């Protein structure tokens, strides 16, 4: 597989999680989600699209860098686990309206991203740096999820 195809594939794999999440999220923004009490620091809805587009792209590049180093099955499996948790969060939060379970999932996601970063560090340090914005964003999202849970 050539480098360009690997890079595009890695980015698309990450964006597929976003597309799956959007399937459950988009219909709820003006409906159920708009009825929730949100904290004052809740970002405007329009910010989430560009942020996730950027984050999924960075995640894909990070995965590509690991693949380029002949991938470490353990490291890649941790990456896939956190990506699965990422997609499942949207299904649980927006699709099932389960705020508490979504909070548990996002905590597991944060921990699995940290573990992914630790595994990636052994292979390619740049791949870890590319995941830092993602870790920061989902940590903030976890804090936001917790506050929405408490307020509702």
From TrEMBL:
Belongs to the TspO/BZRP family. It is a multi-pass membrane protein. One of its GO terms (biological process) is tetrapyrrole metabolic process. It is found in: Membrane. This is TspO protein. The keyword Transmembrane applies. The chain crosses the membrane at residues 7-26, 46-66, 78-94, 100-121, 128-149. Its main location: membrane. One of its GO terms (cellular component) is membrane. CDD domains: TSPO_MBR (cd15904). The keyword Membrane applies.
């Amino acid at each position: 597989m050539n480098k360009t195809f690997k890079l595009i594939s890695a980015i698309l794999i990450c964006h597929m999680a976003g597309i799956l999440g959007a399937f459950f999220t988009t219909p709820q923004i003006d409906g159920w989600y708009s009825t929730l009490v949100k904290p004052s620091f809740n970002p405007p809805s329009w910010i989430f699209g560009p942020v996730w587009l950027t984050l999924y792209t960075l995640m894909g590049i990070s995965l590509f860098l690991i693949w380029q180093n002949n991938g470490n099955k353990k490291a890649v499996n941790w990456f896939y686990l956190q990506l699965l948790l990422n997609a499942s969060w949207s299904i649980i939060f927006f699709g099932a309206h389960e705020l508490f379970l979504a909070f548990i999932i996002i905590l597991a996601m944060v921990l699995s991203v940290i573990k992914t970063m630790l595994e990636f560090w052994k292979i390619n340090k740049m791949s870890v740096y590319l995941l830092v914005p993602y870790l920061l964003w989902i940590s903030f999202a976890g804090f936001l999820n917790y506050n929405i849970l408490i307020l509702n």
